[in-house]
Amino acid sequence: MDQDALKKQAAEAALQYVEGGVIGVGTGSTVNHFIDCLATVKARIEGAVSSSEASTVRLKQHGIPVLDLNAVGDLALYVDGADESNRSLSLIKGGGGALTREKIVAAASERFVCIADESKLVDVLGAFPLPVEVIPMARSLVARQLVKLGGTPVWREGFVTDNGNVILDVQGLQIMEPMKLEQQINNLAGVVTCGLFALRGADVLILGAEGGPRTLERS
Ligand code: 5RP
Hints:
Blueprint: H1 3-14, E1 21-25, H2 29-38, E2 45-50, H3 53-61, H4 69-72, E3 75-80, E4 84-85, E5 91-92, H5 99-107, E6 109-117, E7 130-134, H6 139-148, E8 152-155, E9 166-171, H7 178-186, E10 191-194, E11 196-197, E12 204-208, E13 214-217
Parallel strand pairs: 1-2, 1-3, 3-6, 6-12
Antiparallel strand pairs: 4-5, 5-11, 7-9, 7-10, 8-9, 12-13
Helix pairs in contact: 1-2
Ribulose-5-phosphate is lined by residues 26-30, 80-83, 93-99, 102.
């Protein structure tokens, strides 16, 4: 099976967690498969809170109502992809640049089900460059601080987030203490948020795999 088929398999398996109400929906190619699956049960749900303009477009194309988080309160379920996960279900996210809204929707949700192909499971986070969303005027300042934290930040040139900010992708990290690093980066002046999801990691990780989906739960 190719990588996209494994992503689709994980997305289909996540449908079993949908019980109705309003669903939090992430961003990315794996989530696009999930949105397509969600459309098959749209009569059972009230709508979705979206984490990006791209997901909003796809949800609306399927006729799934997109609701404002401010109007719906806490959510029972959030489904999103990841760029990497360790076995504690701490994640690196933000490859698609939607990390801030993703972190907001994850924080508002009781259960976070992460869907990915099995290549995303790693022993140590950091081989995938860590995205950091930054207020544009602070780009160089934040980059210098990230170097002091041991990384090599690279400006994602030409990319503007849905919030009007820029992304620094931090290469060369071996993240042994994800919660500590998440706090350190989020405390830098000018950082909106970093793509580490450790303080609020996933509760369930569904991995598309050759022998069928594998599910890991946060212990
Ligand atoms: C977007 C994300 C995505 O979840 C992550 O990049 C994984 O994407 P894909 O499902 O396309 O592999 O964090 O900001």
